Amino acid sequence: MHNIIISGQHLELTPSITQYVTTKLGHVLRHAPEALNIDVHITKEGHSPVRYLVKGHIVIWGPDMHITTTDTDLYAAIDAMSDRLSRMARQRHGIKKHNRHTDDLKKEEAKDSGN
């Protein structure tokens, strides 16, 4: 089970915002099923030109993944954070599969050279 923590600063986290973030993180978790904790921190900055700062942090085996996005639209900032985390998770998953494949090839070569 993944522990998802969503927090806000200078804004009220409504159920619709929480559900939107959770839905978006579900797409990220398809590429990073081994994630342990996911933290999302949303900050509202400024008054007349309001900007939203969305930080995503995934605790995972190995190096953690961190993303920070800003936008004038809250949902656009959440989308950008989700897309970037998903891209990072896909790349990481591809690297793991590539390394696993090359390790298997090295073992086979060592086995063949030993005979």
What would you note in describing this structure?
The protein has 115 residues and is an alpha+beta fold. It has helices at 15-31, 74-114; strands at 3-9, 37-45, 51-59, 65-71. The protein has a single domain, classed as Ribosome hibernation promotion factor-like (Double Stranded RNA Binding Domain, 2-Layer Sandwich). Helix content is 50%, strand content 28%. Strands 1-2-3-4 form a four-stranded mixed sheet, with helices on one face. Helix 1 runs parallel beside helix 2 (74-114). The N and C termini lie far apart (46 Å). 17% of the residues are buried.
Draw up the topology in text.
Layout lengths: L2 E7 L5 H17 L5 E9 L5 E9 L5 E7 L2 H41 L1
Overview in brief:
It contains 2 helices and 4 strands; from the N terminus they run βαβββα. With 115 residues, the chain is α+β, with helices and mostly antiparallel strands.
CATH topology name, in short, is Double Stranded RNA Binding Domain
CATH superfamily: Ribosome hibernation promotion factor-like
Characterize the overall form. Answer: elongated
Helix content: 40-55%
Number of helices: 2
Write down the Rg. Answer: 19 Å
Q: List the helices and strands in order.
A: EHEEEH
CATH architectural name: 2-Layer Sandwich
The SS-based structural class is alpha+beta
Strand arrangement within the widest β-sheet reads 1-2-3-4
- As residue ranges, the low-confidence spans are none
Q: Briefly, what CATH class? A: Alpha Beta
Report the strand count.
4
Largest sheet: 4 strands, mixed
Alpha carbon gap, first and last residue: 46 Å
Amount of beta strand? 25-35%
